[in-house]
Amino acid sequence: MHDLTAITALGGIAPQVDTVGEVTLSEVPDVALASVAARLRKESTCAAQLKALLGGPPPQAGRAKLGEPYAAVWLGPDQWMLSARFETHQDIAAQVKTKLGDTASVTEQTDAWCCFDLTGPNVRAVLELLCNIDLLRFETGHATRTSIHHLGCLVVCLDKGQSVRILGPRASAGSLHHAITTAMASAL
After folding, report:
1. Tens digits of per-residue pLDDT, 134-168?
2. How many CA atoms lie within 13 A of 75 on its CB side?
3. CATH architecture of 31-109
4. Angle of helix 123-130 relative to helix 173-187, nearest 10 degrees?
5. For the chain, which residues make up each domain, given as ranges?
6. 135 neighbors 128 (Cβ within 8 angstroms)
7. What percentage of residues in the chain have a pLDDT greater than 70?
8. DSSP-based three-state secondary structure for 76
C-alpha cells in the first residue's frame, strides 16, 4: 500500500504564512470547491435549490454569499463557485450534485485552485499594487475576477479593508504567492 502525504499548493506539509508589517498572507488548503452552472430552462429551479442550500439567495454579479457550511461566488449568469471546509466536504461536487439534481452541471474544482487569505489593516495598499479592483467600493461580500501577475484570479472581500480571499490557479500557486509577497514588501 502506498504511504502518501498530502501537500499544500505551495508544496508544504503545513500551510505557509508570511507577515510583513501588519499584513499577513496565509495559505488556506482546507477549502473544497465546486462550480455550478444552471442548465438551460432550469435556471429558476436551480436558483431555488441553491437558495435552500446556501440559506439565502445565490449571489448576483460582483457578489459572494459568505457563510457556513457553504459559501458561493458569482462567476457569470447562472454560474457560481461554491466552497466549504474540505474536512467535511471532501466530496463537495457529489454533495452539491445530490442537492441540485438535473437543474445544474456541477464540477469538482478543489485541486484546480489555490487559496490565500490576505489580512491586516493595510490590505488595500497591497491590493492596489496587485490588481485593478475599485477598492473604495469593494465591500464585505463583494467578489470579482481580476488578473494578478497575469493570472486569472477570484478576489472575495471577507471584511472591508481588513481581509480578502484570493483564489488562483493551483499550477501557478508559487507565482501568485511570489507576486503577493512582493507587493506586501513594496507596499508596507
Report:
1. 999 999 999 999 999 999 999 999 999 999 999 99
2. 17
3. 2-Layer Sandwich (3.30)
4. 120
5. 17-29+112-187, 31-109
6. yes
7. 100
8. strand
